[in-house]
Structure formats: structure tokens, C-alpha cells
Design brief:
Helix content is about 40%, strand content about 30%. The protein has one domain (about 5-50, about 60-95): 2-Layer Sandwich (Alpha-Beta Plaits). The protein has helices at about 15-35, 60-70, 70-80; strands at about 5-10, 40-45, 50-60, 90-95. The protein is an alpha+beta fold. It is globular, with a radius of gyration of 13 Å. It contains three helices and four strands, in the order βαββααβ.
Length: about 100
């Protein structure tokens, strides 16, 4: 069964923080899209100031677990964390219908 995640993070204000966060996040996007069980992993700018939304789609629960355990998720996640502030929002879903 397909698993989807929508994760929203907020970063501290400032163009420098935004540029550095995006540079690190783009590395995470590239590495994650190369994972065998990943069907989609995108970085999006949210409507709210300083908000970013990751849209994720995985083949199954094992692929989600593999992503969370990956070296790139852990290391790049820590790097991005230096720019984040406030609460993160993570919505996990099982797809019922889709392409």
C-alpha cells in the first residue's frame, strides 16, 4: 500500500537562513528520490512566511522506514535543523486512490 507524508517545517527569518536551508534540503530531495522505494519527494515553499512543505510518497511502509533510517536523512536532517524553529507538522497517510 502506498504511503504518503506531508511535512511542514518553519525556518528562522532571513534570506541567508532561507538560502542555506534550501541548499541542504535540495541535497536531501536528490538523495531521497534515489531511494528504491521512493515514488516522490519534493520541497515546496509554503504560503506562510518561512514555511516549507515536503511532499513524500513511498511504495510501502518498509520504504518509509528505510528512508527514516538512511544516513542522508539523519545527517542532512540535523543540518537543516539548525535553521528550523517552532513546531513541525507531519501528516502521515495511506493512499486509497491515485495514479
Amino acid at each position: 500500500m502506498i504511503h504518503s507524508v506531508i511535512a511542514t517545517v518553519r525556518i528562522r527569518p532571513g534570506a541567508e537562513a532561507e538560502a542555506e536551508f534550501e541548499a541542504i534540503a535540495k541535497k536531501l530531495v536528490a538523495a531521497t528520490n534515489a531511494e528504491p522505494g521512493c515514488l516522490l519527494y519534493t520541497l515546496n515553499k509554503g504560503e506562510e512566511p518561512n514555511a516549507y512543505v515536503f511532499m513524500e510518497r513511498y511504495r510501502d511502509e518498509e520504504a518509509v522506514k528505510a528512508h527514516r533510517a538512511s544516513d542522508h536523512f539523519r545527517s542532512l536532517g540535523r543540518e537543516m535543523g539548525a535553521f528550523m524553529e517552532g513546531e513541525r507538522s507531519v501528516l502521515r497517510m495511506q493512499e486509497i486512490a491515485g495514479p
